[in-house]
Each structure stands twice: as structure tokens, then as C-alpha cells.
Design goal:
single chain, about 400 residues, alpha+beta, Tumour Suppressor Smad4, 4 domains, 7-stranded mixed sheet, 6-stranded antiparallel sheet, about 25% helix, about 35% strand, disordered N terminus, binds zinc ion
């Protein structure tokens, strides 16, 4: 009996010892890190930290003072780091790491980031990456991608964003970085972007990802507002049909979005200029003669559009259509059409087009999870699992541990 109690105590001690070691890793216990591209180019940057930090190049460590800016620049493919007095601290063609020695975030051009920074130089420019645990990365993604208050909608977003990011990590081992920090991948704002509600959603779904037939569902995607119905992936991206990216009826869940319906009007002259400019070095179509919808997807999205001008005609497919039908926004800048879910009407006078009107709905490509729809469903009482299963046909919510052994 005494021996039994002793072994029980030893086991408890071992358990708490191991639990203590867990602080070396992200909260879910997995040492999965992601390399996020923060900066690319030849423009010098400033690096600092509220607490002492250090640069490491070729195994050599250089201590840096807190609250002072260190200028990083490139000259003839060599990386140059100047100390706060402007004196050259180091000149090297090797990659550099920047590590906080007190656990405080590092600052790049005044913005704070968790984890460490890595600087790679070459071809007349340098790349600055933020390397950090995947779970910490997500804390800086959610507030920029989906800053709402509904916990279940945020949790759905966290699982999709984690799945997307893990897919990028698994495909980029031979690349300089895993993911960019702009919305073309996933918007990432680092430590300064973090909010309590979004951080809670990441922590409460820690390590959860989406799988399909036992494999990571690495094609998952999302968009702001579907406008009533999401779309099959092949009709938008021209890729092979993916079972879990079938269009579904959003059941008006996203109708509170201000982009649920919209109307854009162009004069013939303005739209033909936009279309001709979009053709770049390709042959211009000249004066606009007609626009016709040739094909639509299951949601009603235009998947093929015929545009005819005096010098010829073009057929535009999928999400490319949005780039050809740009319109001037409130700031006077041209932006892509909100979505491809629209009907076209032409005003014709004496055989010539005078005005073109697109009567449409939704914002974004329309594939995968509709964010405003997820919000609407969460408000109706659905939990994040139900929301994810609704938008992604046949997927399973799994633990990512099996993919990162
Ligand atoms: Zn929707």
C-alpha cells in the first residue's frame, strides 16, 4: 500500500514537471511555428524593443539596448545594422536573427511582434520574417480578418485560419517564408492588432483544424459576404472541383452585411477605359459594343463574361471578372467589383451603349465560409462546429497534432 502511494506521488511529480516544460511550446503543446513575411525591399527599417534584445549573425551574439532604434539596411547585397548612434554594428551577407532576451515583443518600424525576427539579404533587397508559434500568429490574424463580437463566429474563423496557415506551412519548407502578412494570404497585424475576444477564440479552439478524408483540408477559404449563396470553387478559381468547397444556400444569414446587395453604374466611356487599361499589353477592344453573361455558377455568380468592342472581343472567367469591372470607390480610387454575383443591364441610345449597370450582391470571391453568414448563424445560436460543417461539406474538426509529427 505504501509503495503504491509512493509511486502515485512520483507520477504526480513527473506530471507537474512535464507540464512545466510545456511553457517552451505553444499552449497546445505543439512546437509548430510559422514564418510570416513582414517586409520585402531595399527600404531601410528600424528595429527596437521595450526591453533588451540581441542580434545573432553567424552564431555571434550582439546585445542591443532597449527602447533605441537600430537601423537595418542593405548595400551591395550585404546586410548592415547600425547602432542607435549611427555607427555600423555589423556588415554581413549571412542571415540575421533578432531575439528578445526579456520576453517582450520586438518592434519593426514601431509595430510590435511576438516571437523573433529574421532578416535575409540577397538580390539587392532584404526580407524580414516574423517567426513565431502558429497559435501566437493567429492572435494577430483574427482581429484583421474578422473583428466581430460573436464568440462562436470567431471560433469558426480561428479554425479556418489555422487550417489555412498550416496548409501554407506544410507546402513551403523549401521557401524563404510560409505566408505573407497581407490579405492576399491572411492579414496579420502582430501584437498591436490583438484583442481579447479574438484571442479567446484562438485559445478555445487551440490546435483544431479541418480535415477531409483524413487529410488536411488545405484549400479552405473564406470571404466577407456571399450575398445569399456561396459558390463551387471551380467556377471562381478555375481549379479542380473540391468536395468541401461546394456552394451552399446561406439562408440569408449574411443579410445584415452592408454588401448583401449593391449597385454600380458606369458610363460607357469610363467602363471601356477601365477594361482596356486592364488588358495591359494585350490587344485593346476599343469602343465598348456589348457585355453579355455567358455562364453562371450554382449561386448565380458570373463565371464567364463576354465583352465585345469595336476591335474584338474577350471572354473573362471566374474571379478575374472583378478585376476587369473596377469602379471608383469613395476615395476616388479604382477597386475591384465587390463580387461576381451580379446582373448586367445596358442603357442603349441610337444603337450605342450609354450606361452600364451591375446589380449585385456579396463581397469577396464567394467560396468557402461566408463570414457575415457565420456571424448571422452564431447570432441564431449555432456553435462554431455547426457553422463550419454547414459551409464545408463533409469536413471533420480534428487535432492538428497528427499532421505535425
Ligand atoms: Zn452569406
Amino acid at each position: 500500500m505504501k509503495l503504491y502511494n509512493l509511486s502515485k506521488i512520483i507520477l504526480i511529480i513527473i506530471f507537474f514537471f512535464l507540464a512545466g516544460l510545456g511553457t517552451c511550446y505553444p499552449e497546445n503543446g505543439l512546437p509548430v511555428s510559422i514564418r510570416v513575411l513582414l517586409h520585402s525591399g531595399a527600404v531601410p527599417v528600424k528595429i527596437s524593443s521595450p526591453a533588451p534584445f540581441k542580434f545573432i549573425i553567424n552564431g555571434k551574439q550582439m546585445k542591443a539596448d532597449s527602447a533605441k532604434d537600430y537601423l537595418v539596411q542593405i548595400k551591395n547585397d550585404a546586410l548592415i545594422i547600425n547602432d542607435p548612434d549611427g555607427k555600423e554594428l555589423v556588415k554581413s551577407c549571412s542571415p540575421a536573427s533578432v531575439i528578445s532576451t526579456a520576453g517582450e515583443p520586438l518592434k519593426l518600424n514601431g509595430k510590435r511582434y511576438r516571437g523573433k525576427l529574421q532578416i535575409l539579404a540577397g538580390n539587392g533587397k532584404f526580407l524580414i520574417l516574423n517567426t513565431l508559434p502558429l497559435e501566437d500568429y493567429l492572435l494577430g490574424v483574427l482581429p484583421l480578418e474578422f473583428n466581430v463580437k460573436e464568440a462562436e463566429a470567431l471560433k469558426a474563423q480561428a479554425v479556418v485560419a489555422r487550417t489555412y496557415a498550416l496548409g501554407k506551412i506544410l507546402k513551403s519548407s523549401k521557401k524563404d517564408y510560409d505566408i505573407t502578412s497581407d490579405p492576399s494570404n491572411q492579414a496579420y497585424g502582430g501584437f498591436d492588432a490583438e484583442t481579447l475576444l479574438c484571442s479567446n477564440a484562438v485559445k478555445e479552439t487551440s490546435g483544431q483544424i479541418l480535415t477531409f478524408n483524413g487529410k488536411l483540408a488545405d484549400s479552405v477559404c473564406y470571404h466577407s459576404t456571399c450575398g445569399g449563396h456561396t459558390e463551387d470553387n471551380e467556377k471562381v478559381f478555375g481549379t479542380k472541383p473540391i468536395s468541401y468547397l461546394r456552394g451552399v444556400d446561406c439562408r440569408e444569414s449574411c443579410k445584415d452585411s452592408r454588401f448583401y446587395t449593391w449597385k454600380i453604374t458606369w458610363s460607357r466611356e469610363s467602363l471601356e477605359k477601365i477594361i482596356n487599361d486592364s488588358l495591359g499589353s494585350q490587344k485593346k477592344i476599343g469602343k465598348l459594343r456589348s457585355i453579355e453573361i455567358l455562364e453562371q455558377g450554382s449561386s448565380g455568380r458570373v463565371s464567364k463574361l463576354l465583352v465585345e468592342g469595336e476591335n474584338g472581343k474577350i471572354v473573362i472567367s471566374g474571379d478575374e471578372i472583378r478585376k476587369f469591372l473596377k469602379f471608383p470607390n469613395d476615395k476616388g480610387r479604382l477597386q475591384n467589383l465587390y463580387s461576381t454575383l451580379f446582373k448586367i443591364s445596358l442603357t442603349i441610345d441610337k444603337g450605342e451603349i450609354i450606361q452600364i449597370e451591375a446589380d449585385g450582391g456579396g463581397w469577396g470571391h464567394g467560396v468557402g465560409m461566408c463570414q457575415f453568414g457565420a456571424l448571422g448563424m452564431a447570432k441564431k445560436g449555432m456553435d462554431y462546429r455547426q457553422i463550419l460543417l454547414y459551409y464545408f461539406n463533409g469536413i471533420k474538426i480534428d487535432d492538428m497534432a497528427q499532421f505535425v509529427k
